[in-house]
Amino acid sequence: MKNLVCLSLLILAFLFSCSKDDSSVLPKAVNNALYFPPINTEVWETKPLVDLEWNTSALQPLLDYLENKNTKSFMILHEGRIVVEQYFGNHTVTSPWYWASAGKTLTTAISGIAQKEGLININNKVSDYLGTGWTSATLEKENLITCKNLLSMNSGLDDGLGDSVSPINLKYIADAGTRWAYHNVYVKMQDVVSQTSNQSWSDYFNTKLRNKIGMTGAWIDSNDFSVYWSNTRSMARFGLLIYANGTWESTSIIPENFLNEATNTSQNINQSYGYLWWLNGKSSYHLPASQLEFNGELVPNAPSDMYAALGKNDQKIYIVPSKKLVVIRMGNAADNINFALSSFDNDLWEKINALID
């Protein structure tokens, strides 16, 4: 009994000593917490490289490489704080640039929000929302195509007829779910959301996503579809939202279970593709404009848990949960014009690894 009393007194003394010196514990917990920049200002906390014990001597070679590869802007966030932010040439913190197909993931996010609000169910067929005749396929074949097929790039529609998503360009080539092909038809999800919300795509997007996390930017019409333009920090804000499992501070914006689906393999053909997100760490992948299957990881030099929004001419959002990183690259094509993935991804990650390892 005496020993038990002594032990109890020791525990109480320990707890008291910890509570008496809160200043030595709480600030560290706060500093290590995930940070979200305020939504009405461009003030953004930074974190020095030395605090992360990264290889500071590798920073300048990385920046030199980026500049030589036609980069306009580059950012690295660690737990939400800016560790690296660099602009090249005349590009500045306020300069807008196009997301290209990296912006496909904005459509994914909005689809998740619309489903949370009960406006849509991605397992339903597209014609439930747009009516029949939105393709030139037969009614039987058109009714096989679900919203999930649009998000997964396995609609079965011909991907060789150009960017237009008018019915004449949306021709049947295979049953939905049996063929993966990188296709602009995903933008019909924007029509689905607009139809079910009784709002324009831009208005719904701005209200439900952009304004809630402090993004700037706008959808700019390009041929038969819109492309998102913003500054680099707005792209970083979106990347941070996804890294935080769809939550901004304490507010859930995109359902976490939906994002889990979106950032895992969505179909059984291209292992490295979710809902418009590219996935690393899989054993094989397909590429745009090809029906070939390639063995190996998408970006071998990148962490296996990395997933990415990839856009034409090397617009990039890389998210790496294991490293607590969001990485952004905007600019012209690093080498040759490309749809999404390029050799630049792997070469860039070699340089990033030299910095963070």
UniProtKB/TrEMBL annotation:
Keywords: Hydrolase, Signal. Pfam families: Beta-lactamase (PF00144). It comes from the Bacteria. This is Class C beta-lactamase-related serine hydrolase. Residues 73-336 form the Beta-lactamase-related domain. The lineage of its organism: Bacteria, Pseudomonadati, Bacteroidota, Flavobacteriia, Flavobacteriales. Gene3D superfamilies: DD-peptidase/beta-lactamase superfamily. GO terms for molecular function: hydrolase activity. Residues 1-19 form the signal peptide.
